[in-house]
Amino acid sequence: MSAPEPGPERDKSTSEILGQALGGAARRAGLDPAESSSTHKVVWSAMGGWRGILESVLPSIAFVVIFTIRPEPLILSLGISVGLAAVFTIIRLAQKSPPSAALGGLVAAGAAAALALWTGRGADNFVPGLITNAVYGSVILVSALIGWSLIGLAVGFLMGEGTTWRNDRRKRRAYFWLGIAWAALFFARLAVQLPLYLAGDVTALGTLKLIMGLPLFAPLIAVTWLVVRALHPREPASEDAPEA
After folding, report:
1. What top-level branch of life does the organism fall under (predicted)?
2. pTM score, whole prediction
């Protein structure tokens, strides 16, 4: 018996799996268009509140400041940076709160520090971030260009419409431009930070990484949320519906 040929059902299964994964991640981050939330609340939730902000920026700030003041020994600045990430993780575990964000930061900080110690170059502490920007930017850009925007897949799953948004020209165009905007953010980071990495300017590189992090992430989250909510307006509650 010959093997079944790949067809629409296989493509649909792949898109559903990807949409569920992206949608689940968006929901955990507080980005669910089906819920009634203010833009401010959504952006704040996506950043993880004060704890998420501190977990994101403090290890990097510590590394940059200490490395600038005392570049040698390198293990000093790297150790304090990783140590802060470990403290955040321990606190989350002790409070039995979801540790995924802190664990992700700890793993990333540990991998970056290990690379920097192995090469002996402080600038290599930023290599994982450069790679992440390149990969995320490329994947989001390609998905938008081929008409399968990752944003559209995530929203389609969250709103229970699957991939039918691709039949709506307005939604398809909106998700295309949102994908372009997100890809532009990642590539802008790469374009600014890569020359500094090649020049070995750790202080400038670390500073610009922070400036191009949450300060640019938050407005783009807000824009994405507003566009998605405009495309999927909430239906009036049944008790508010006019009587026949």
Report:
1. Bacteria
2. 0.82
